[in-house]
């Protein structure tokens, strides 16, 4: 054996030892867990994968098998997964990179492992690539597979974490690509699954490769301020330890230092410097409950004990105990004022809650007698269900899908109650319409409004935590294109787009029929050249748009279209532009724009000679000079005030309007007195809400009172009836508030009409 062969043999022996040691470490970690000890199948999976990847190396130069071992170790050690997941992690690249098939895996390791490996094979190759849209389709597959077995996504996250930890061996352009998709998809996914520790590491590693200089600067600053933080932590926690020892709690107190990525993110979003971020240090109290079922009460006992030492911030108590986050997170967050004059957040949680916070859903089954995971985590299944529903309505652009999912991944949650008191978890910033679609597509598509805390609100009303929401529907209601502008959840957006597309297809069909009939009447045929000429003539991009406009009657075909098709259009008309006909064809858009301009020009402008102490008088002559925002809808007879806005125009608000309350407290020097001087010449919209016992002829009686007895115009009536009770709203045209009061008095005379209320 020559020297080269001896070196080669020595290298092979060293690599074999490295592989065997790595696998032994994986086995030892698994044996120390609470899972059933299925060592045989794990060893079998390891030997199979080792053989399959033999001779293959990673970019770093190490044997390829080291990667599956590392992924399996993350699954076992950092996620607490069991033998099925460990075997799947060891085998996750076999089908993609070797000649073995899913059927081979199934024959040797059984259906479950084969299904997970198949799921992992389908979604490998990253979400983004040269064909971003096609890669987004991969993401759909990932989520579909995930709905079958959550372990697919968990192992995929382990795989991504190991790739990020070894990213240094990749070329720079690959580093940015992998870091970018990690921040866009995998970190939010980890967060949504409650994998806090992994989410933080993924974010920090991505940040490190995308912004190396900023990452280093923050790391250096964290290192240089560590001593001060340690002193602050000791001074702050010493009295807490004393108090907890007194009440006999088994606990440990940890310092939580904000991660570099979180610090950088805050610096960007809030436009602050490192030194201005006050919550770099937080304190965690992790305790062992005396009685497992009493752990929530024990959290509050600890809170009571420490709030005797430090003053707590009244607006910063976050109770995630009774209402856990959608990712399973439970804790009590309080912010206390330290003796050094700094607000410090304290997170109180039990040992079990702490494990769930770090390992997410994976930690739940640790407490189920060591059994393997069974998919019964309600909140998680709700989320998977939402994804399945979005996938039922395939969207034309897969990237939209990606963005809508991302939208829901990032959102923090609020808790909303149904009329029966059931709690629903919704993303922050969602509207009443989002809530309607969350409950049922039928409710969403026929929603006309909602009652939030028993008060009628429009579809676009943003919900807050703790709101009780009742959805009001009408069979005559249809999905409106404008809805897409204010819904915020992926589910609602997907449903609205699907319904609008379906409606558009119907209208397009009608439009096509109209065009065909018109062409037949004029002895013409539908050809691509005819279509192109008509599209050009009406300034629309595609035939579909032309059909839609015809179906909606925005375009009416006539003599000029015929002249255009037969080439009879006179030259001077073409030169001067046939566009002068377009306003007529498209609903006089130009005139509307002009009106808006005129309206802006008519607005009163406050100059330096304006006397703020004198009231603003609103009469028929001056009313168009003021702005009436939609927040409170004042009409003559209401108590009003004026507010000078940033453009020196005057807004008119009701004095009781919540927006006006805020303006009064913040911009007192811009508030004006305002008075009406109207003479019952103009009409205004007013809305009256009614509620009562449903019976035949009720609507007729209501119309009789308003139209016949009072001779007023009803603008719109919306009635919703449910189990013998009806409620609804009537929009009427009135001269002033006195007329509204008269209507209400007259309505109260109607039998079975129980409540009559005026909406602000």
From TrEMBL:
Functional summary from the UniProt entry: In eubacteria ppGpp (guanosine 3'-diphosphate 5'-diphosphate) is a mediator of the stringent response that coordinates a variety of cellular activities in response to changes in nutritional abundance.
Q: Which family does it belong to?
A: Belongs to the relA/spoT family.
A Pfam match: ACT_4
The organism's taxonomy opens as:
Bacteria, Pseudomonadati, Bacteroidota, Bacteroidia, Bacteroidales
UniProt name for this protein: GTP pyrophosphokinase
Q: What PROSITE patterns is this protein classified in?
A: TGS (PS51880)
In terms of superkingdom, the source organism counts as Bacteria
Domain named TGS: residues = 412-473
Spell out the PANTHER family in the cross-references. Answer: GTP PYROPHOSPHOKINASE, GUANOSINE-3',5'-BIS DIPHOSPHATE 3'-PYROPHOSPHOHYDROLASE
Q: Which InterPro entries match?
A: ACT-like_dom_sf, ACT_dom, Beta-grasp_dom_sf, HD/PDEase_dom, NT_sf, RelA/Spo_fam, RelA_SpoT, TGS
Q: Which CDD domains match?
A: ACT_RelA-SpoT, HDc, NT_Rel-Spo_like, TGS_RSH
């Amino acid at each position: 054996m020559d020297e080269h062969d001896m070196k080669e043999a020595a290298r092979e022996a060293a690599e074999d030892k490295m592989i065997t040691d790595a696998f032994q470490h994986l086995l030892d970690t698994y044996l120390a867990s609470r899972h059933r000890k299925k060592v045989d199948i794990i060893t079998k999976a390891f030997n199979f994968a080792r053989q399959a990847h033999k001779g293959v190396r990673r970019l770093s130069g190490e044997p390829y098998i080291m990667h599956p071992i590392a992924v399996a170790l993350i699954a076992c050690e950092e996620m607490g997964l069991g033998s099925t997941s460990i075997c799947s992690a060891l085998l996750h690249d076999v089908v993609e990179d070797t000649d073995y098939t899913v059927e081979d895996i199934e024959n040797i390791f059984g259906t479950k492992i084969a299904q997970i490996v198949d799921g992992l094979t389908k979604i490998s190759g990253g979400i983004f690539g040269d064909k971003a849209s096609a890669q987004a389709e991969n993401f759909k597959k990932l989520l579909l597979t995930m709905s079958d077995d959550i372990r697919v996504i968990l192992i995929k996250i382990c795989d991504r974490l190991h790739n990020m930890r070894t990213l240094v061996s990749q070329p720079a352009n690959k580093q940015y690509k992998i870091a970018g998709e990690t921040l866009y998809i995998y970190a939010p996914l980890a967060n949504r699954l409650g994998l806090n520790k992994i989410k933080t590491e993924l974010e920090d590693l991505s940040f490190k490769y995308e912004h190396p200089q900023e990452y280093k600067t923050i790391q250096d600053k964290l290192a240089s301020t560590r001593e001060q933080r340690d002193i602050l932590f000791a001074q702050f926690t010493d009295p807490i330890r004393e108090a907890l020892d007194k009440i006999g709690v088994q606990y440990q107190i940890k310092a939580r230092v904000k991660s570099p990525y979180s610090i950088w993110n805050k610096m960007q979003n809030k436009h602050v410097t490192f030194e201005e971020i006050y919550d770099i240090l937080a304190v965690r109290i992790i305790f062992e409950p005396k009685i497992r079922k009493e752990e929530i009460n024990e959290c509050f006992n600890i809170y009571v004990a420490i709030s005797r030492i430090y003053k707590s911030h009244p607006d910063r108590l976050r109770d995630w105990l009774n209402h856990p986050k959608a990712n399973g997170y439970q804790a009590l967050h309080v912010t206390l004022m330290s003796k050094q004059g700094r607000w410090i957040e304290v997170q109180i949680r039990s040992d079990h809650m702490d494990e769930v916070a770090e390992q997410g859903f994976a930690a739940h089954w640790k407490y189920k007698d060591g059994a393997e995971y069974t998919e019964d985590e309600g909140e998680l299944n709700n989320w998977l269900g939402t994804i399945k529903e979005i996938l039922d309505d395939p969207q034309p652009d897969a990237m939209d899908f990606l963005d809508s999912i991302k939208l829901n991944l990032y959102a923090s949650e609020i808790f909303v109650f149904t009329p029966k008191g059931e709690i629903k978890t919704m993303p922050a910033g969602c509207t009443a319409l989002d809530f309607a679609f969350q409950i049922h597509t039928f409710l969403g598509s026929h929603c006309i409004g909602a009652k939030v805390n028993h008060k009628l609100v429009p579809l676009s009303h943003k919900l807050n935590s703790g709101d009780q929401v009742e959805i009001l529907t009408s069979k005559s209601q249809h999905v409106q294109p404008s809805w897409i502008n204010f819904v915020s959840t992926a589910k609602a957006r997907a449903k609205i787009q699907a319904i609008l597309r379906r409606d558009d297809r119907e209208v397009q069909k009608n439009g096509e029929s109209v065009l065909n009939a018109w062409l037949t009447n004029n002895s013409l045929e539908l050809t691509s050249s005819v279509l192109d000429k008509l599209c050009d003539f009406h300034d629309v991009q595609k035939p579909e748009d032309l059909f839609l406009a015809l179906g909606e009657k925005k375009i009416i075909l006539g003599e000029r279209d015929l002249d255009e098709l037969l080439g009879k259009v006179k030259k001077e008309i073409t030169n001067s532009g046939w566009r002068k006909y377009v306003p007529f064809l498209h609903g006089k858009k130009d005139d509307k724009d002009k009106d808006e301009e005129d309206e802006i020009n008519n607005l009163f402008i406050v100059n330096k000679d304006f006397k703020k102490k004198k009231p603003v008088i609103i009469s028929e002559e001056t009313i168009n000079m003021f702005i009436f925002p939609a927040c409170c809808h004042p009409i003559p007879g209401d108590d009003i005030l004026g507010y000078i806005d940033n453009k020196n125009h005057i807004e008119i608000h009701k004095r009781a309007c919540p927006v006006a309350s805020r303006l009064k407290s913040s911009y007192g020097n811009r508030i004006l007195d305002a008075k009406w001087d109207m003479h019952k010449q103009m009409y205004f919209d007013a809305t009256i809400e009614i509620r009562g016992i449903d019976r035949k002829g009720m609507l007729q009686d209501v119309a009789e009172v308003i139209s016949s007895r009072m001779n007023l115009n009803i603008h719109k009536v919306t009635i919703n009836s449910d189990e013998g009770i009806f409620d609804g709203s009537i929009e009427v045209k009135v001269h002033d508030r006195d007329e509204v009061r008269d209507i209400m008095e007259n309505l109260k005379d109607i039998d079975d009409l129980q409540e009559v209320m005026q909406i602000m």
